[in-house]
């Protein structure tokens, strides 16, 4: 298993405590067959907010966007390092500065080296703060 795969397993399997971490944490309201990559017993770090949707690492270790309506917010604290913007329609956008670039996740999913490296750097920082 490569290092990236190990990071995914650690982050997805991590027991999250909102008291210990100062990160936004959500939990799926109900198991939904439309989202087999999410577990109702798992808490998830919110990696960012895009048009009011939450970007989280799902159970397969993929940083996908999901409707915020699917989740209960366990800890609403947004990290201080997030860049927050409000769209023309009042929708919210918030990401860590390193992930707050137009097209960042498109490049990540195309497996471009720079974006992959930056993404895992940010996730590893979150993991180190959780320890």
Find the structural class using helix and strand composition: alpha+beta
Low-confidence stretches: 1-21
Helices, by number, come to: 3
Tertiary shape: globular
The total number of structural domains is: 1
Number of strands: 7
Give the end-to-end Cα distance, rounded to a whole number of Å: 22 Å
**Whole-number radius of gyration?**
14 Å
Q: How large a portion of the residues is in β-strands, by DSSP E?
A: 25-35%
Mean pLDDT comes to 85
Helix/strand order, N-terminal first: HEEEEEEEHH
Helix residue percentage = 25-40%
Please describe the structure with a list of short key phrases separated by commas or semicolons.
globular; alpha+beta; 131 residues
Can you walk me through this structure?
- Strands 1, 2, 3, 4, 5, 6 and 7 form a 7-stranded antiparallel sheet that branches.
- The protein is α+β, with helices and mostly antiparallel strands and 131 residues long.
- The N terminus is likely disordered.
- 15% of the residues are buried.
- It has 3 helices and 7 strands.
- The protein has one domain.
List the helices and strands and how they pair.
Layout: H1 3-13, E1 25-28, E2 43-50, E3 53-57, E4 63-66, E5 71-75, E6 82-86, E7 92-96, H2 104-109, H3 113-130
Antiparallel strand pairs: 1-2, 1-5, 2-3, 2-7, 3-4, 6-7
Helix pairs in contact: 1-3
């Amino acid at each position: 298993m490569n290092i990236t795969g190990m990071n995914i397993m650690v982050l997805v399997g991590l027991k999250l405590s909102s008291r210990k971490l100062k990160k936004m944490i959500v939990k799926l309201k109900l198991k939904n067959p439309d989202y087999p990559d999410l577990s109702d017993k798992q808490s998830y770090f919110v990696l960012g907010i895009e048009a009011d949707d939450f970007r989280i690492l799902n159970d397969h270790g993929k940083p996908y966007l999901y409707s915020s309506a699917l989740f209960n917010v366990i800890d609403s604290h947004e990290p201080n390092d997030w860049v927050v913007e409000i769209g023309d329609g009042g929708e919210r956008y918030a990401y860590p500065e390193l992930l707050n670039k137009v097209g960042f996740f498109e490049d990540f999913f195309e497996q471009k080296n720079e974006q992959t490296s930056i993404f895992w750097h940010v996730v590893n920082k979150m993991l180190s703060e959780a320890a």
